[in-house]
Amino acid sequence: xxxxxxxxxxxxxxxxxxxxxxxxxxxxxxxxxxxxxxxxxxxxxxxxxxxxxxxxxxxxxxxxxxxxxxxxxxxxxxxxxxxxxxxxxxx
Length: 91
Fold this sequence. Notes:
Shape: elongated
Strand content: 5-15%
Helix content: 40-55%
Radius of gyration: 20 Å
C-alpha cells in the first residue's frame, strides 16, 4: 500500500513523496510513526556510541573502524578521525 503525502516546503508543496511500507506499518498516524521510529533509532545505538557520534559531529571528524578511516583518508587526501583532546603523551 503506497501512501502519498503532501508536505509544504516554503511556498511549494510536494505530493510525490511515498513512504516505505515498513515505515507505514509503525503506526496509524504520522505522530505515532514518528515516535516509534525515534524510539527504534534511540534503542539501536548504545549510549556510549551516542556520545562518540556527538563529539565527532562537533569536531567534524569521522567515526568508524580503522579500515574505514584509512579508506576515507586515501580518498580525500586528508586524515579525519575521532581522537581524544590534546597531543599524544611523550614516551
